[in-house]
Design goal:
binds D-ribose
Length: about 140
């Protein structure tokens, strides 16, 4: 189950990603925002991050204009590893190495086509499970 959320800057890209998730047959919940009216990215970054940290959702996708504010917010929630990705290499590596549980995107940075490829890469790449990566992830929280 995927939790997805954005601020107004990410709203349009969120709608594209939702359509893509539906085409993929993914289960998801949209935590808002639900229009392009100006709002505060922490509200939606926190909602998605808390949903993932609770264990009810396995993966999150968060979007703001740059992806920066909303990823900073999500990473304040214990247990969250939110990765801001602007390319597919990073999306693959952060799943393999960091077991990232939230993908952050900047809607004013990446085009829709690239964003959807990044989403696919993130969702389709499993954590490597390597001992060295487990050790490093444990050190993030300690
Ligand atoms: C909103 O204008 C913008 O500041 C926000 O979407 C994001 O880029 C913040 O990091």
């Amino acid at each position: 189950m995927i939790a997805i959320g954005s601020d107004h800057g990410g709203f349009s890209l969120k709608q594209e990603i939702i359509g893509h998730l539906e085409e993929r047959g993914e289960s998801f919940r949209d935590f808002g925002t639900y229009s392009e009216e100006s709002c505060d990215y922490p509200d939606f970054g926190k909602a998605v991050a808390r949903a993932v940290a609770s264990g009810e959702y396995q993966t999150g996708i968060i979007i703001c204009g740059t992806g920066i504010g909303i990823s900073i917010t999500a990473n304040k929630v214990p247990g969250i590893r939110a990765a801001l990705c602007g390319d597919c290499f990073s999306a693959e590596a952060t799943r393999l190495h960091n077991d990232a549980n939230i993908l952050a995107l900047g809607a004013r940075v990446v085009g829709t086509g690239l964003a959807l490829k990044i989403v696919d890469t993130f969702l389709d790449t499993p954590f490597s499970g390597d001992e060295r990566h487990r050790r490093r992830i444990e050190k993030i929280e300690s």
